[in-house]
Amino acid sequence: MSSTAEAHGHGGGQHAHGHDHAQGDHGHHDQGWFMKYFWSTDHKIICFQYLFTGMFMAVIGGFAVYVFRMQLAFPGMPVPGWGRVTASDYNALITTHGSVMIFWVAMPVLIAALGNYLIPLMIGCDDMVFPRLNRLSYQIFLVSVVILILSFLVQGGAFGGAWTAYPPLSAKSAFNLTPMGSTLWITAVALEFVAFLLGGINFVTTLMNSRAPGMKMFDVPMVVWMIIIASILFMASVGPLVAGAVMLIFDQQIGTAFFDPAKGGDPILWQHLFWFFGHPEVYVVLLPAMGITAEVITVHGRKKLFAYRTVLYTAIATGIISFFVWAHHQFIAGIDPRMANIFTVTTLIISIPVAEMVFVYIATLYGASIRLTTPMLWALGFIGEFLMGGVTGIFLGASGADIYFHDTYFVLAHFHYTFFPIAFIATFAAITHWFPKMFGRMMNEAWGKVHFWVTTISFNMIFIPLFLLGARGDHRRIYDPTHFPELMRAGMQDLRVLATVSLLILISVQVVFVANFIYSIFWGPKADKNPWRANSLEWHAPSPPPHGNFPEGLPNVYRGPYEYAHPDRGEDDHWPQHEPPPEGAKA
Amino acid sequence: MSFPRPVATMREATGMPTGRLAVWWVIASEIVIFGGILGSYIMHRLGHPEWAHQSIHTNTWIGAFNTFVLLTSSLCAVLAHQEAEKKNGPGAARYLMFTTLGGLTFLIVKSIEWTNEIKHGYTITSNTFWSFYYTAAGLHGLHVLAGMVIMLIVAADARKGKELQRVENIGIYWHFVDVVWIFLFPLLYIAK
Amino acid sequence: MSADAHAHPSYVKIWGILLALLVVSVLGPLLEIRVITLITAFGIAVVKAYIVVRYFMHINLEKKYVAYMVGSMIVLMVLMVGAVTPDVMHHDGANWYNQAAADEVKRGMAAGEKDEHH
Ligand code: HEM
Ligand SMILES: [Cu+2]
Predict the structure, then answer these.
(1) CA torsion C71→C72→C77→C82, rounded to 10°?
(2) Are the CB atoms for A14 and B22 separated by under 8 Å?
(3) Distance (Å, rounded) from C-alpha A195 to C-alpha A235?
(4) pLDDT the model gives residue A24
(5) φ, ψ for residue A69, nearest 5 deg
(6) What is the pTM of this model?
(7) 3.40.50.720, 1.20.120.80, 3.40.120.10, 1.20.120.1560: CATH of B17-24+58-190
(8) Domains of chain A by range and CATH?
(9) I need a surface site. Which of A500, A515, B55, B132 has the fewest CB within 10 A?
């Protein structure tokens, strides 16, 4: 049944495609705006839905951090645009910031938007295998967004128990004072999980079944692999937390006591269920960022990816180990000390594959003819900045050191040195790299570089002070440090002000990006099909790809995606995956 | 609604139909959901010997009857698959209806059982054992309900001889729901 | 696909075996011997699940990786429970003690025994 529709050859693809295109076109013309942009099953439109929703949520998350950082730098002063920050405002804002940035920015942009855009294009087919499931996935995601935003309006306000939602604080409204907000929050998170489960199943089956003829396992671009591995990690780790979310909702609303030890429950259980998901989750977002970096440094460095298989196997190993390190978040939560020893060891072990990936990228850059385009700058920035995050993670992984560092700004700085490079730096690499494909126009390079340098420098200027504060014992969940003389020792408030001022710079400079982005969509110079002279299949489609992606027929694949500066190619330093080998040469 | 089928939906690079592949992935992701709640239950159960005084009140006979119902409905599901393989759409649809009927019986018995227990004061909040009892079985019941709805849709198509491959897919899912119950039964009923 | 059809054993026979196992798993615990209860309840559950997965879901006819995929999820859950058990199942350990849980056990035991005397 399969091979009749899809003869394994160029012509076959063309035939099948022509047929499909006619149908697609038919649908296209009598679609209204709503059908085209909201009800569409086209993977590219769904990418844009996720992308723009993610960007919108980034504004909300960014606004939240602006307000509470102002409170920390200038405690008690009214914040422009918000007013005086009360303690419960503060809690709601940090919770919103954390959960929005992870669940509603990093996940939808890195996994859902990029996965949707890149997987079908890069493996040479015309859509996902379940287009309607894909649409449903976004719609569920949208509902979760609406619920989250509504939670600000209900009585008691939005949930303030931090993104980790530890009970008893999260379970009892007598403690958190947000009887509705906390349930809406956990419901929104659970719906978001459902959306990504549907999306993940779709991604995985698409890669498995819909690759272009000729595309073998090691011909798949690294970013696709990484998104797939991330989706599987997500799928395997989120289950217990889905069950936990149901239990937490019951604790909140019905009065069960799953997490209440006085009635036979256990709050530590929630921490385990949460971090059994929470730690793999950090690799769920890390791996796509690593994949983006692999694409960008090879295309803009004109060099083959060093040790493709090593990267792939390392990513799989990282994924597997990431399931067995979660309790490093609970070293001082009262877990069994023998377990703490085991988890210290596994945590130190996982830094090996992570470091290995970084080394492979450095080896790829060695001897490459690097072009410092904006995407390349972002990718290089990612490698450098993430390194800081990874190295400080090792400090925290040693349970002895973590007794001191836990819940200080040192932890906060650690995970921002991992998350910010992932969710923003690598994402900017991806957006600037694939922008010509997505919108058919080029972004402005000069403004792109301004944006890069100011963002990166101000990012460091936020979090280096926070490392220093954390090393001096500054606790990360304090609303007003002036109440604690030990947190107001000489110089500590100055560091807080420095971090906040740098944050203001960081936020302001995003205007440059937004302006460049919007301007370039409409008025940027037109991009041709393959402006970076890259190999992978998406660059074989027109920019932007029409409905059905490849009007000249679905491509066949003859080689891996990283054949740059191949000796047989002479002057031409790239060798597209879809280009048949020359007559007479062996394939 | 006519829906233009992209070529992607018709490819089969692994040699396994996409629908069936996806069902297995769904099952994989469901295993960890049920694993989470059952694992939590087992740990608590072993740490709380006093729950034996609560679990004594669950009704093993009703549980056993429901196991029988689900096993039989699974038989119907697999017979439906057999008919579908013979390209006998109406036959497959008929067996699927029997399966759905099994699901319905299961849910009715369940609701009678729960009403009875709640009347005797064993509610979801009376003790954490009962919280797990209702939550785990409720989560499972939702899966039964979802399976029934999908089964009716598949049966409606199958009757017209359309999309017969879906008969097997929904069957695999249904058997999985059955397997979950096979473990819930000893955990909630037999272990007194 | 249809070539497999001939390989199927009689489904009704398998259903019969499953029902027989069900009867044993219900009757076993009536002997009130702990080991037998455990074996008949959980051992038989595993056997029943295996039969359903093998003969109804036909996992053996699928590609190998399907079994690995499903199996690794189960292994993952076992490992998770293994690592969480020391904290959640036990109520004390090296240098720690879960007073609330221990109290709850005591209270529940006392209440349960009182119930039985009624
Ligand atoms: C080499 C790899 C890494 C190691 C060894 C490591 C280690 C750790 C440890 C031990 C902690 C717990 C500190 C504490 O709470 O006391 C921690 C916290 C954290 N790490 Fe990492 N980490 C690594 C990579 C990452 C990556 C890649 C990310 C994100 C993508 C990340 C995100 C986080 C987050 C979000 C937290 C804190 C969560 C919270 O308490 O709210 N880490 N890390
Ligand atoms: Cu971690």
Answers:
(1) 110
(2) no
(3) 11
(4) 38
(5) -70, -35
(6) 0.92
(7) 1.20.120.80
(8) 37-569 (1.20.210.10)
(9) A515
Domain boundaries, chain C: 1-61, 66-118
Mean pLDDT of A6-16: 36
Of A152, A356, A319, the closest CA to residue A226 belongs to A319
Residues in chain A closer than 8 A to C96 (CB atoms): 334, 336
Helices (H), B48-164: 52-55, 60-85, 89-119, 128-159
Q: How many Å apart are CA A351 and CA A459, to the nearest integer?
A: 23
**B115 within 8 A of B62, measured Cβ to Cβ:** no
Could you list which residues have their CB under 5 Å from ion ligand 2? Answer: A 279
Tens-digit pLDDT profile for chain C (118 aa)?
444 444 567 899 999 999 999 999 988 888 878 888 888 889 999 999 999 999 999 998 888 999 999 999 999 999 999 999 988 888 887 777 888 888 989 998 998 887 766 5
Residue B119 burial (C-beta neighbours within 10 Å; 0-12, 13-18, 19+): exposed
- What's the one-letter identity of residue A51? L
Query: Residue A392 burial by CB count (10 A; 0-12/13-18/19+): exposed, middle or buried?
Result: buried
Cα distance from N-terminal residue to C-terminal residue, chain C: 62
Q: What atom in ligand 1 is closest to the CA of residue A332?
A: 16
Q: Residues B103, B76: contact at Cβ < 8 Å?
A: no
- Do B34 and A269 count as a contact with CB atoms less than 8 A apart? no
Closest of A167, A252, A264, A244 to residue B127, by C-alpha: A264
Q: Which residues contact A183 (CB under 8 A, 6 or more apart)?
A: A249, A252, A253
Per domain, the residue ranges of chain B are 17-24+58-190
CB contact under 8 A, C87 and A339: yes
pLDDT in tens, A217-231: 999 999 999 999 999
Rounded to whole angstroms, the maximal C-alpha distance in chain C is: 64
Q: How far is CA B113 from CA A61, A394, B66, in A?
A: 47, 53, 11
Q: Could you tell me which residues are beta bridge partners of residue A83?
A: A79
Predicted confidence (pLDDT) per residue in A55-72, tens digit: 999 999 999 999 999 999
Separation CA B6–CA A20 (nearest Å): 6
Q: Which two tokens stand for residue A554?
A: 């679905």
Mutation target among B23, B78, B95 for the C interface, most CBs of C within 10 A: B78
Question: Tokens 């944050």 sit at which residue?
Answer: A503
Residue with tokens 């939670």: A151
Ligand 2: centre distance to CA B84 (Å): 48
Residue B111: pLDDT band (50, 70, 90) is: very high
% of chain A surpassing 70 pLDDT = 94
Q: Counting runs of H as helices and runs of E as strands, what totals does chain C give?
A: 5, 2
Extract the tokens encoding A368: 């490459």
Determine the angle formed by the axes of helices A374-397 and A337-365, rounding to 10 degrees: 160
CA distance C16 to chain A (A): 34
In the three-class reduction of DSSP (H, G, I as helix; E, B as strand; rest coil), residue A177 is classed as coil
Contact A180, A151 (CB under 8 A): yes
Cβ atoms A272, C110 nearer than 8 A: no
**Helix A445-471 and helix A427-439: axis angle, to 10°?**
160
Give the largest Cα separation in chain B, rounded: 60
Q: From CA A549, how far away is CA B53, in angstroms rounded?
A: 64
Q: Are B31 and C79 in contact (CB under 8 A)?
A: no
For residues A418 and A413, give the distance between their C-alpha atoms in angstroms, rounded to a whole number: 9
> Any chain B CB within 8 A of the CB of A216?
no
Please write the tens of the pLDDT for every residue from B141-176.
999 999 999 999 999 999 998 889 999 999 999 999
- % of chain B residues with pLDDT over 90: 85
Q: What residues contact residue C42 under an 8 Å CB cut-off, 6+ apart?
A: B186
What letter would DSSP give residue A398? S
